Amino acid sequence: MGAKPPLSPLAPEGFPKLPVIGGVSFATTEAGVRYQNRTDVLLVSLAPGTAVAGAFTRSATRSAAVLDCQDKIGCDPVAGAAIVVNSGNANAFTGRRGAASVQAITEATASALGIPANRVFSSSTGVIGEPLPHERIIDKLEDLASALSPHAIETAARAIMTTDTFPKGASEVVMVDGQAVHIAGIAKGSGMIAPDMATMLVYIFTDAAIDQDILQDMVSALNRTTFNCITVDSDTSTSDTLLVAATGASGLRMTENSMGFMEGLRRVMLDLAHQVVRDGEGATKFVEISVTGAASDAEAHIHAKAIANSPLIKTAIAGEDPNWGRVVMAIGKSGARADRDLLAIWFGDMQVAKDGFVSPSYNEASAAAYMKQQEIVIHVDLGLGGGTARVWTCDLTHGYIDINADYRS
Amino acid sequence: MGAKPPLSPLAPEGFPKLPVIGGVSFATTEAGVRYQNRTDVLLVSLAPGTAVAGAFTRSATRSAAVLDCQDKIGCDPVAGAAIVVNSGNANAFTGRRGAASVQAITEATASALGIPANRVFSSSTGVIGEPLPHERIIDKLEDLASALSPHAIETAARAIMTTDTFPKGASEVVMVDGQAVHIAGIAKGSGMIAPDMATMLVYIFTDAAIDQDILQDMVSALNRTTFNCITVDSDTSTSDTLLVAATGASGLRMTENSMGFMEGLRRVMLDLAHQVVRDGEGATKFVEISVTGAASDAEAHIHAKAIANSPLIKTAIAGEDPNWGRVVMAIGKSGARADRDLLAIWFGDMQVAKDGFVSPSYNEASAAAYMKQQEIVIHVDLGLGGGTARVWTCDLTHGYIDINADYRS
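Output (structure tokens, whole complex):
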């Protein structure tokens, strides 16, 4: 690995102040899985009765830890639960050894906390294709169990970082019947997958009381418009994991109609998703792609992803070039329905194309000035129907090539 | 535009010697469509009776010239025919004006050559979204018609270049009943679409006699394993055009069973396809992705394209990094069937992964040495069935970013 990359220019000013979530405590340690002189293992303890919902990579080559989490999601939440995460080694593409490592870690964690093994969720992120030295993690579990603190969420966010340039956290307080429900989450990730390491990992905690199946439905639905709407480089990790744990410590019960809570959870998920994009490898611009007028929401999403993943559009944004022709190209290749002569395109508030041709009001100098901003919005209206979608991405720069191609030099 | 990019390190030694094709003649001129001091218009005249087949971009925002060609393909080949091409302006996303320009150019060409307008095929390549000054082309048609020569195919290849760093030609001579049938073709393109310009244009000529519908079936079938199997940057042009013209001048008639002729045509198409990849923007490596053992040929193609289009794999190749973990990632995300623990991967002859884990014979130093070659073969066996595919691509380098992002600086 070369030198540590500099802080992303799109990083927030600092780690936010996150509320304590009743029933959740954290501990971190230096286990030397791969990194030296930094924390690399996180243990999260969750009170008995905590409902845990999740969403995972759909990769056909997903890791053993992801498969294990998927098996355990939905099981009876009577007992306590735990999340154990290591950075430095992804335990992905490690054959049968991978599953054995997951079993060893989750059973040892269950034993250290006195909970059933089917309530221990694990994640690993880092290099792939190398056996995980899981005994280094297991050796630290007793120490971790005795060091658990409800105040350690920022150190938790730092322990799971790999190529991230900043730790990521977000929170919301939602008022329900005059009482506060808290939601706090952490995330890591700076590419869908990064130099042999990385993956997106997200852990969100709330003191709301909510049935596991209702929480799972909310998470699955909200995931569709948050984490599933970001892309750094179109590449998908073998280990992406989102876990949402509801401890019930607030004593306030949510239902499928708790719109205030659902909106709070959505905001936390979207904030963390945006932070992952802002830490995208080599990113210098934060870009929103908004598509309206598509034949359906699903087709709007296909168009938005085609625009957000186009290397030519991402390099044009890096070059501060208002190259709307490349947007036309991406819509054309997406496979979703489009009529060239109905297309309208805006960069920010500026209409650049209309009825399939350059807009009469288009001014190259103004458009070029707009592209110098750090945050860019590209809006496309297809003129076909009511389908809409929003997707977030970053630009494609020399920094991306430096991180990913010059890795061995 | 910045300085002209240097000659691709993957360029052939020079333009090949191509045979004269009876019934085909070429003329080029400087019309100043956009470029100054270089040829930018090509006229090809085809003898009466020439069958013309084609394959075109499937972009939903395809250009007016592509739509016009698609309308005309398959019409009665009794009369003579023509192809007229300009570089410098793609006449794409130019609304109703685009169609009017195509009509004006094809009608003027028909008039200059005394052939019906429905036998004139046109292409335009260059900037998109700017009205085509078609009168500059029309003003030159009488001169072009009087300058036609059967020997000018190399100048033809040069007149259609945009960001290409070398002109592209290929030929085959096929023996049929002891007599020679000739095939010669030219191509341009150095990205699926390039800095506001580019597009892949391919014109192939043969003196074989062949029915238009049989030629069309051959071209459609061969296109699937040649031009449809190359990718530079996953972006698809609004103007990609392949035209194959069979004049019949050899007097030798081909049928759907003329395997020798079909194999010759395939070799010319594949050679030109490979030359387009070798001129890929910023390319320093020519890469073959070979997939075997997939559940079907179609799924093998999906896996191969996912590998060939992955920015992380393309940057790893640029960095001479034998990063087989990223190949696993791309297979996982492709959407086609895969079983992680059956995967085997080779870089050249070196097996790097086996049964879902690093191969016992893997040697990092040998693999790193292999990656220093200019031509790289990545072979994946999925262990599922008999499906196979081959795809060709290039690496993703700082040169690509220079050409596409630094365009305005």
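Chain A touches chain B through 70 residues (CB under 8 Å).
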